[in-house]
Amino acid sequence: MIDPTITRVEVLDLRFPTSRESIGSDAVNKNPDYSAAYCILRTDSELTGYGLTFTLGRGNELCVGAARYLAGFVQNRRLSALTDDLRAFSRQLTDDSQFRWLGPEKGVTHLAAAALINAVWDLYARQQNKPLWRLLADMTSDQILRLVDFRYIDDAITEQEALALLNAQRKGREERIADLERSGYPAYTTSVGWFGFSDEKVRSLCHEALAQGWQHFKLKVGSEPADDLRRAALVRDEIGGSSKLMMDANQRWGVNEAIDRTRELAAFHPWWMEEPTSPDDILGHARIRRESGVRIATGEHCQNRVMFKQLLQANAIDVCQIDSCRLAGVNENLAVLLMAAKFGVPVCPHAGGVGLCEYVQHLSAFDYIAVSGSLENRVTEYVDHLHEHFVDPVRIRNAHYLLPTQPGYSAEMYPQTLKDYSFPDGKVWRDLA
Amino acid sequence: MIDPTITRVEVLDLRFPTSRESIGSDAVNKNPDYSAAYCILRTDSELTGYGLTFTLGRGNELCVGAARYLAGFVQNRRLSALTDDLRAFSRQLTDDSQFRWLGPEKGVTHLAAAALINAVWDLYARQQNKPLWRLLADMTSDQILRLVDFRYIDDAITEQEALALLNAQRKGREERIADLERSGYPAYTTSVGWFGFSDEKVRSLCHEALAQGWQHFKLKVGSEPADDLRRAALVRDEIGGSSKLMMDANQRWGVNEAIDRTRELAAFHPWWMEEPTSPDDILGHARIRRESGVRIATGEHCQNRVMFKQLLQANAIDVCQIDSCRLAGVNENLAVLLMAAKFGVPVCPHAGGVGLCEYVQHLSAFDYIAVSGSLENRVTEYVDHLHEHFVDPVRIRNAHYLLPTQPGYSAEMYPQTLKDYSFPDGKVWRDLA
Q: What interface predicted TM-score (ipTM) does this complex get?
């Protein structure tokens, strides 16, 4: 097997003008232009690694800048020098002695670390000629353990506990892989209920989605109370009593307001209430959960494993929504999968944006195969746009993600996309200007 | 009174090569080059506003980039358009609908918001011809209240509670101001015990500091246990039993390790243990506090008011260490002062770096005058370097900060400093290259 040297790291600023159609609009994120700081690892072989972190547009250049600095930890290194100790490598990117002041392990610098770590995993999986989920699934429990940085979480899960948990799931692995190959991984749709959509549009989208086999639907809430209630009634009416309705407030409320509003909306039997308040408010989420009686979900803005640890320790969440790029790539996501399994909380990844669906399908599959061993109460978010830019896009059948089969971590975009959507000089942006 | 229009915002990347003398070295921050993203607000009058955020060197350019974007919220606006509603202005800088994805309210983007908000306050205080602490102290309780964004904290303190608290401290204000004018605000020194200093150097620095009247001394811990114990014994021996010894682990430990190590070091009667673990670990700090029996301090890396709220709600800290630049400038610091007062936790600001001492002297003075009304268990950090670059530097007498008397927020640096320390093209950096 070749062991390529990474000879050059390109970091691109890609932006898609999604705000023009209210795609992605919610109570807080009014006008996102889905964007990516996009890393390309060129090597001295025919192999290339692709990785990204996701943002909403403005400020994407900061993630690009941070990734360009962190690229120094990758450049001119053999792939094996990184993959022989991926725990140490991920620590290098998140613990630079001057850079860490800007976090530590949060915000711009952490998002940038994710892009590079994800790119290295893509290159690794291509070298091994396996899709990422398979590369992970083929590892021994010990190998998986050594991917994870237990610093700051060993009071919640020790290495020994993690090892025992992984070993316990060796049994039944092949059946679960066969199950995924047959049916795929359950998904839910967020495409029906964006904030900026009219009632008519929501109604017709629900109708279409039902016909396509969807059984889980997300509605954006957090507007005027009467509007939320009207929209919730409308969606519930459209999807019927047996489909699951998830609500997402995107951090719109304070704690007391979140309790009141969630109680009101409970009339429409939400399967969960997502991001009812500040993503930093662990104790607040715990209180909203206790006092509303509704299942609580959060995570797309959860900055790192230390925060997820506390959400679990505080019994603050019923649904753990990892994000493939907000956390520092594959490694830190594995840490959270392990903790969630220990605490018995289902992981339902955040996706959408650009590339997030392509990423999380691998993480969900691996969670089922080797960590949680369960599909109960588990669905992965699916949003239906921008997939056409990917060389190996997600494939959905009957509201399930089909298992990826191509080598890598599925983030490679077409060369034409990289050209046209480069900001600010790509064709798409020049045409809009 | 003139109402200047901000015509141009300059943002400079200033770095000081402090790592060459182990100044600022601790268990985690091995080699900081104290740096600032430095904002200059030029106006159509003779008034100019100066503000900064503090970093450790690499990555400072990201804060500069973020501040240049946020400068758009300041540019071409009249000062009164900002100061008439400073709550709304600070919300604009921290809640941009695309930019907030990069936080929200944390890391690079929040540090950058601090620089601009602090610069606007400097300009405002100069316009009013008052030092910042006096500008705040002269406000009515209602005016102060309207500076604070209560979003996400109103479950811990309501506007009514904050108002009552401010009104209760109207009494005795003039006496407290007179007290500060007479004696200054108590300070402690961190300059004796940096990580990279030899035992001999620590010993002689303690000796000198004692002779200068210092009674509170901070020691950096978090190295090999035997080394920490030796250094703690050495400092305790040198400063005697009646001086206060604070220990600072700078996030070095996991929760369990922090409990063990803090218990061991308790033999030397630390007045507090600072940053024993991850700054994000609210529940961890609470456990370390309960199980070690030592007073716990944290805050220099506490990303925003939502985290401080929880540290207070969870009984996790005995000492609240606000940072003038980590939080989004004066406004968010006021929110934390109010919460700390409500929970009865003393505020002892983090300082040092470059410009932080110049800033926090104003916040501590205002806290005493109008919020907490008390000096009990309160000392402000003092570190003795880089003050020579400031036009109106801190003045220390008998281990107290003397009240600033010049108009503004004390962050103006000499033009020669701005030239020489610009990175990477200033003379200092060219000479080092």
A: 0.97
